[in-house]
């Protein structure tokens, strides 16, 4: 009898792995993820209980104390250790404390591209207890002034090469009593001071902790701009609590102090700033910082610096796949690629060409309160859902009416959950664990992201504005964005802002801006349907000059169609669905149609030949 029981147990153990593989193929990955999630929550909870408060800056101090000589930032031919960065940031902090016209707790706007001074300056401001608004270094004029003003900043720090853009809005800044510093040697412009000169003359002694004693977990840490669904860019408020929690992303994916992280995404973006910079502070890794992404030099940089971890947005991997093949494509040490927005076909091509790299696709929004991680490597998915994750961060996909641009509601006025395999709007319940702080000085837009009476009267959810789908195997896939935003070149573009710029052209009466799909490209490229002023002719050169002067490259509408009138809904909203479906093909668009030819510096008539060249990728967009 004992032998029978023993034999049965041994047989059961022998077939157990087979049962798991057949019926629960992701059992071990799911278990590892849940344990990892538990570890993060426990670690975060322990840090939140520390006295005095433990913030991101304190983790940096730990790394500096424990590994002062470890390379922290490598940029071009320069290398800065954790100690170097600490001393340089101390000089900047001491200079600002002495010469900056602000009080503790005031917001400071940082208007810089990717360079070590960005990191040193942010550390300096954190030491002074100042929230930092991260301005997109591509914006100028009206957009720059708007972004600066909407976060209530009292001081502006800009890179040397952006001095011209700053001087353009300087009169407005001076009217607001704003102090302006340029990270350059010598500055002869009245009202602008050289922060570089002041920092070089300052001491590198630590800044007194008393200067940040006012900081709490709810205090703003950074403002990261997102175009959202309407209007000009909005400043998403990231408080100290959330920034501390976000530090775990790289560590939770196995990144350690021995890793070398390649950071070529903009530091003003959540991806570059939080994942590339802040998360590297947590792990104690070395950052290889680059001014801009370069597909042709990407792998040479990785080989030169022994990079082990790379970041991406979907376009980055596509650009890499589209570069000419080399004999040493697999000659590198990269083991992990982490990011979001990669298409399934690009994902496959990337692995086939560059080798066995673990791709960790994730879904998150700068201001959102829920995220997903594809920890299994399932190609095409942005994450995997499970019961426990949903209990901690309650979310759902609800049916959405794209024509009316609103959730579908039943006879009780409540939302309807999308079925498995059906595309739905992602909403996430707002709780203490998953809060939604909103946008700085923009209660109207903050309220628009709150969705009430979702599954019961009185409940409150965050409206992501994203359409996703969950399959029968619990993998979740990103489908599209809703509202007045499209994404191109890894950037969110607010259609209202582009419309306003087009309407400033002398010949244009009104513009309806939207994004259209282009074969073989991620996201949607800008297109506009416009009406002309009475008696006016379309001015292709003047309109081109208008959009290139006031819009960054990724936001410029590449196609314009001229209409007699713009179709609107009964509530006076511009209709976009039909326009999006018709796209930019001269075969489907009967209206006069133009293409932005950057070489000619003009909009030129759209022809079948141009269309074919775009489809064949002979014309680069």
UniProtKB/TrEMBL annotation:
Q: Which SUPFAM superfamilies match?
A: Acetyl-CoA synthetase-like
Look at the named UniProt entry and state the broad enzyme category this protein falls under. ligase
What catalytic reaction does the record list? a very long-chain fatty acid + ATP + CoA = a very long-chain fatty acyl-CoA + AMP + diphosphate; a long-chain fatty acid + ATP + CoA = a long-chain fatty acyl-CoA + AMP + diphosphate; tetracosanoate + ATP + CoA = tetracosanoyl-CoA + AMP + diphosphate
Give the main location.
membrane
Record bears the keyword Nuclease: no
Compartments reported by the entry: Cell membrane
Q: Which is a Gene Ontology cellular component entry for this protein?
A: plasma membrane
Keywords (alphabetical) are: Cell membrane, Fatty acid metabolism, Ligase, Lipid metabolism, Lipid transport, Membrane, Nucleotide-binding, Transmembrane, Transmembrane helix, Transport
Query: Which terms does the record give in the GO molecular function aspect?
Result: long-chain fatty acid transmembrane transporter activity; long-chain fatty acid-CoA ligase activity; nucleotide binding
Entry's Gene Ontology BP terms: long-chain fatty acid import into cell
**Ranges of residues in domain AMP-binding enzyme C-terminal:** 498-573
AMP-dependent synthetase/ligase domain segment(s): 62-375
Domain of life according to the entry: Eukaryota
Q: What membrane topology does this protein have?
A: Multi-pass membrane protein
NCBIfam families the record matches: PRK08279.1 (NF006134)
Instruction: Return the PANTHER family for the record.
Output: LONG-CHAIN FATTY ACID TRANSPORT PROTEIN (PTHR43107), VERY LONG-CHAIN ACYL-COA SYNTHETASE (PTHR43107:SF23)
What name is this protein filed under?
long-chain-fatty-acid--CoA ligase
> Organism, per UniProt?
Aldrovandia affinis
């Amino acid at each position: 009898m004992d032998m029978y029981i023993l034999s049965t147990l041994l047989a059961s153990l022998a077939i157990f792995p087979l049962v798991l593989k057949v019926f629960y193929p992701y059992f071990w990955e799911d278990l590892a993820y849940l344990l990892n999630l538990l570890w993060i929550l426990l670690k975060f909870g322990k840090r939140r209980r520390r006295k005095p408060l433990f913030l991101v800056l304190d983790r940096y101090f730990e790394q500096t104390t424990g590994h002062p000589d470890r390379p922290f930032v490598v940029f071009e031919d320069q290398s800065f250790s954790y100690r170097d960065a600490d001393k340089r940031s101390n000089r900047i902090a001491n200079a600002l404390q002495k010469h900056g016209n602000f009080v503790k707790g005031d917001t400071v706007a940082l208007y810089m591209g990717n360079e070590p001074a960005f990191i040193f300056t942010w550390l300096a401001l954190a030491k002074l207890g100042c929230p930092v608004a991260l301005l997109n270094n591509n914006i100028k004029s009206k957009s720059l002034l708007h972004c600066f003003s909407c976060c209530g900043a009292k001081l502006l720090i800009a890179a040397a090469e952006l001095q011209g853009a700053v001087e353009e809005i300087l009169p407005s800044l001076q009217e607001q009593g704003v102090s302006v510093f340029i990270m350059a040697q010598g500055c002869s412009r009245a009202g602008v001071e050289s922060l570089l000169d002041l920092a070089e003359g300052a001491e590198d002694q630590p800044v007194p902790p008393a200067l940040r004693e006012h900081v709490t977990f709810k205090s703003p840490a950074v403002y990261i701009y997102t175009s959202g669904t309407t209007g000009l860019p909005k400043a998403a408020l990231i408080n100290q609590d959330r920034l501390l929690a976000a530090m775990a992303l790289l560590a939770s994916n196995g990144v350690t102090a021995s890793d070398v992280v390649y950071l070529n995404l903009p530091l003003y973006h959540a991806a570059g700033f939080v994942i590339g910079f802040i998360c590297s502070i947590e792990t104690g890794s070395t950052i290889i910082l680059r001014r801009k992404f370069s597909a042709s030099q990407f792998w040479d940089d990785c080989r030169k610096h022994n990079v082990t971890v790379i970041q991406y947005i979907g376009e980055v991997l596509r650009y890499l796949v589209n570069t000419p093949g080399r004999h040493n494509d697999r000659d590198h040490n990269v083991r992990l690629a982490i990011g979001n927005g990669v298409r399934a076909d690009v994902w496959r091509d990337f692995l086939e060409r560059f080798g066995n790299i673990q791709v960790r696709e994730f879904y998150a929004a700068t201001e959102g309160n829920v995220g997903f991680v594809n920890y299994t490597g399932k190609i095409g998915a942005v994450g995997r859902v499970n019961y426990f994750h949903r209990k901690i961060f309650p979310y759902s996909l609800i049916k959405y009416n794209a024509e009316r641009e609103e959730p579908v509601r039943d006879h009780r006025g409540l939302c309807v959950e999308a079925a498995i395999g059906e595309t739905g709007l992602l909403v996430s319940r707002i709780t203490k664990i998953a809060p939604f702080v909103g946008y700085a000085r923009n209660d109207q837009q903050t309220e628009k992201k709150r969705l009430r009476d979702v599954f019961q009267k009185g409940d409150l959810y965050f409206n992501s504005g994203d359409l996703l789908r969950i399959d029968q195997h619990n993998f979740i896939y990103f489908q599209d964005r809703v509202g007045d935003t499209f994404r191109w070149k890894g950037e969110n573009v607010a259609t209202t802002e582009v419309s306003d710029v087009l309407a400033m052209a002398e010949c244009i009466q009104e513009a309806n801006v939207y994004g259209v799909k282009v074969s073989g490209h991620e996201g949607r490229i800008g297109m506009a349907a416009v009406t002309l002023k009475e008696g006016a002719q379309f001015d292709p050169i003047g309109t081109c000059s208008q959009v290139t002067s006031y819009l960054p490259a990724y936001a410029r509408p590449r196609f314009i169609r001229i209409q007699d009138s713009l179709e609107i809904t009964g509530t006076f909203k511009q209709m976009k669905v039909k326009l999006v479906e018709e796209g930019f093909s001269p075969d489907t668009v009967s209206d006069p149609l133009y293409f932005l030819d950057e070489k000619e510096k003009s909009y030129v008539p759209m022809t079948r030949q141009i269309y074919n060249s775009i489809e064949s990728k002979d014309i680069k967009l």
